[in-house]
Amino acid sequence: MCGRKWVKAEPHNSLGLRSCGMGKVIFDDVRVPAENIIGKEGQGLRIALAVLDFGRIGIASVSLGIAEASLKEAIAWVKEREAFGKKLKDFQAISFMLADLRTEIDAARLLTYRACWKRDKGENYAIESTMAKLYATEIGLKAASECLQVFGHYGYLKDYPLERYFRDARAMTIAEGTSDIQRLVISRNLLR
Questions:
Q1: High-pLDDT (> 70) share of the chain, %
Q2: Do 25 and 110 reside in the same domain of the chain?
Q3: pLDDT-derived band of residue 20, with 50, 70 and 90 as boundaries?
Q4: Which of 29, 33, 37, 104 has a C-alpha 20 to 30 A away from that of 154?
Q5: pLDDT at 35
Q6: Do 9 and 100 reside in the same domain of the chain?
Q7: Residues with catalytic roles
Q8: 41 assigned to some structural domain
Q9: Using CB atoms within 10 A of its CB, is residue 180 exposed (0-12), middle (13-18) or buried (19+)?
Q10: Do residues 30 and 57 share a domain?
Q11: Count of structural domains within the chain
Q12: Are 69 and 97 in contact (CB under 8 A)?
């Protein structure tokens, strides 16, 4: 029987994702009636791993949103700000960086869509979700970081959203398995 005295929640004070209400749940001597068990006894790890596959699509999607929002802010910024007598958008290094981000974000989106498509078709999508999660989170972090850089010291201020995007993007590279874990899963699949 699950009751409050056997289950405790402890909130985390995290660097990013402050709107998510992150924390940990502690189960102490909890007994689950047979009719409330999910799946068959002994299949917990397999079920948990399947949940990770789906969760990785979610993390990839959040990362895409962070990347898109970062790029949108940077585009608006460079169209308005000036340095050395011209708009920031007219500096080739900045415009090329934004063009590369647009391309990489679209590539991450396509990887994420492919994982969703395979899931919707009822096919195994474990590797596709892993690749989408890896690439989208890395691009989300890159976009947040480079777009923050475009803002200069303003990007580091809480007055602008880039500092939050950066903090949240960093968390995405850790959630549902770090980038190194994703590489391990992909390489094991490749080399088996």
A1: 92
A2: no
A3: low
A4: 104
A5: 85
A6: no
A7: 176
A8: no
A9: exposed
A10: no
A11: 2
A12: no
Q: CA-to-CA distance for 103 and 94, rounded, in angstroms?
A: 14
Residue 43 lies in a domain: no
Say if residue 128 is in the same domain as residue 55. Answer: yes
Looking at the predicted structure, is the pLDDT value of residue 99 above 80? yes
The β-bridge partners of 86 are 83
Burial 26-62 (b: 16+ CB within 10 A, else e): eeeeeeeeeeeeeeeeeeeeeeeeeebbeebbebbbb
Instruction: Give the sign of the dihedral formed by CA 183, CA 46, CA 62, CA 10.
Output: negative
- For residue 141, CA distances in Å to 79, 93, 161 come to 23, 19, 14
Domain interval for residue 143: 48-191
- Contact criterion met (CB below 8 Å) for 59 and 49: no
pLDDT at position 2 is: 45
Q: How confident is the model at residue 1 (pLDDT cuts 50, 70, 90)?
A: very low
Quote the CA–CA distance of 145 and 167 in Å, as a whole number. 9
